[in-house]
Specification:
By secondary structure, the chain is mainly beta. The chain has one helix at about 1-20; strands at about 25, 30, 40-50, 60-65, 70-75, 80-85, 90-95, 100-110, 110-120, 125-130. The strands form two sheets. An eight-stranded antiparallel beta sheet has the order 5-4-3-10-9-8-7-6, covered by helices on one side. Strands 1-2 form a two-stranded antiparallel ribbon.
Length: about 130
């Protein structure tokens, strides 16, 4: 039951985090879509837990280079992840004992947000980011 609640909470958080605002049309021409910008650099991460009670698997900082997550700070985890051309970020953090947290959302213009969840620790929540 807890797994389904965790999955539901993560899905609801993700749908709000990934929703794209619609641009109004002007005189028959669609307004230009803003570029998400270059995600490369150092990002500070603030994560909160809304489901379950688990040790932090989400790092407090990320280094992104070549649109790939190359290092994480503040948590003893191995890191895998990338940012696509639209600013969508997908990451996985693996800690001791094969504990895993999944992380997804958006990075745009020096700010970011999204959801995270851990099926191994039965918890999840939200995160915010700012470029350091």
């Amino acid at each position: 039951m807890r797994f389904w609640l965790l999955t539901l909470a993560a899905s609801l958080a993700a749908s709000g985090a990934l929703a794209k605002p619609r641009k109004p049309k002007h005189e028959g021409a669609e307004a230009a879509v803003a570029s998400p910008g270059d995600p490369n650099g150092v990002w500070t991460i603030e994560a909160s837990t809304s489901v379950g009670n688990c040790p932090a698997l989400i790092p407090t900082g990320l280094q992104i280079s070549g649109n790939r997550i190359v290092s994480a700070a503040g948590a003893e985890v191995s890191t895998w992840g990338y940012v696509d051309g639209e600013g969508n970020i997908v990451a996985r953090f693996t800690g001791s004992g094969d504990r895993v947290a999944r992380f997804h959302g958006q990075l745009r213009g020096g700010k970011g947000s999204g959801a995270w969840s851990s099926s191994t620790d039965m918890c999840g929540g939200a995160w915010r980011a700012s470029r350091g």
